[in-house]
Amino acid sequence: MMAGRALQLVAGIALVIGWHDRLAALFLALFLIPATLAAHDFWAYHGPELQGQLANFLKNVAMFGGLIFVSFRLGPGTPTSQRKATFQADSVLGPQEAVSDARVRLVDRGDRDRRLSG
Known about the structure:
Elements: H1 2-17, H2 21-39, H3 48-72, H4 79-93, H5 95-117
Helix pairs in contact: 1-2, 2-3, 4-5
C-alpha cells in the first residue's frame, strides 16, 4: 500500500518535471493496471454503484492511454528538453532568426514527407 503511494508520488513528480518522464509514465501505467482492476470492479456491482465504478474504471483506462502515449511517443527528448533547445536557439540566433530557422525545418520536413509518400 505504501509502496504504491510512494511510486505514485515519485513517478508523478518525475513526470511533471520531465526527469525520466518516459520511464515514470511506464511505471505509473503498469501500476494502474492492477490498481484499476482491484479498486474499480464495476462488473461486480448493480444499480447506482455500477455507474460510479464504471466511470472511475473508464477514467483510469483513459489515464492509462495517456501514460502509454508518453512512454512510447516518437521524437527526440522530452518537452522540457525541447523548450531548453528553443531557448538556447533564441539566445544564440536571436528570436527572429530562430523562428525563421524553425520554419525552414518545417518546410524541409514537409517536402521530405511528400517525396516519401509520392
